[in-house]
Amino acid sequence: MKNEEYRMKNEESSARFHHSSFIIHHSALLCVVAGICLSLAGCWSSSESEVVVYTALDSEFSQPIFDDFQQQADVTVRAKFDVESTKTVGLTAAIIEERNRPRCDVFWNNEIINTLLLKRKGLLEVYRPAIAEKYPAAFRSDDGTWHGFAARARVLIVNKEKMPDPQKWPTSIRDLADPKWRGNCCIAKPLAGTTASHAACLFAAWGDEQAKEFFRKLKANDVSIRSGNKDVARKVSAGQFAFGLTDTDDAIIEIEQGRPVAIVYPDQGKDGLGTLFIPNTVAIIKGGPNPEQARRLVDYVLSAAVEKKLAEGRSAQIPLNPEVEAKVRVKTPQTIKPMQIDFEAAAEKWDTAAEFLAAEFAAP
Question: I need a labelling partner for 192 at 20 to 30 A (CA). Which of 31, 94, 291, 355 fits?
Fold first, then answer.
């Protein structure tokens, strides 16, 4: 089969999986993974001098980290990326499908819920690097199966030309459901990435019924559902919407490119939930072909140098290791009120949340 046919099959299967991702082990999973596995088959093989990493963080931010590691460790990094709208779901699906013959050594996820789903399926290897102890307990696993680092905040991005008076800016994620903003705000589809993680956290924090009512109100308020957080930030900066829910990395890029937008850290009031901070996560896949190099890569990714580079780069990610000294251009859990959340509890809620959200927001 020709490469173009492979590509078309991959795109079609990723789309099918995206619409039914709430049941990750169902048949749609196989559709996605079939394309991914075909693209990998015969290309990657085990080697003592290489490590295979499936990476959900955008390549423009993660590839420089791999390049540095290759130079320092003399190890070839073979990185697998996926498309913006389904990358965490697609890569997670590939790891599950390959469980009997793992191809991946390290999973660098740009959120947390899908990492925890892999943990629940027993697919993550225990590894306790010394540096992991420097990170706050809330952002690492008790059993050493995953490690959080370099967080992003879930924020509102506001178009200052459409809303010139800051006193009238939205201050809460609940403002997305306010009728005065009907049809004039947007979010990413809540079935993948940090938006899915955010939804799972709301189900854990509010309970099923309150969370469902919130998302029903969003739908009734004609909130526009975009392909991803980057699309949300760009649509707001272009003036197509007054505000939207996105991540700090996508918002700060628009600000630093001179777009007429600002960041609002939501729910900072006395009775507010606080702003949700979602870490990147890194984990070693059980039975991966290059375990020694996998441990070396995890050590490097958790190093102060990497968090500093991610903080000072275009994505402005937030160091979680308190010993990291970096110029941070966004708010942190130390400078504003963070949402208090048990990520393990949120992962337990994901099946319930995803089934509901797929029914409400997936295209027919």
Answer: 291
Q: What is the pTM of this model?
A: 0.85
Residue-wise pLDDT for 259-298, tens only, equals: 999 999 999 999 999 999 999 999 999 999 999 999 999 9
Tokens of 51: 């490590």
Backbone angles phi, psi at 140, to 5 degrees: -150, 155
Of 262, 311, 53, 249, residue with least CA distance to 156: 262
In DSSP terms, 247 is beta-bridged to 154
List pLDDT tens digits, range 20-37. 343 344 333 333 333 443
Contact 123, 285 (CB under 8 A): yes
DSSP 77: E
The label of the residue with tokens 């991914």 reads 36
Q: Which of 208, 190, 189 is nearest to 199 (CA)?
A: 190
- 199 contacts 173 by C-beta, under 8 angstroms: no
- Domains of the chain, each with CATH number or no CATH: 152-276 (3.40.190.10)
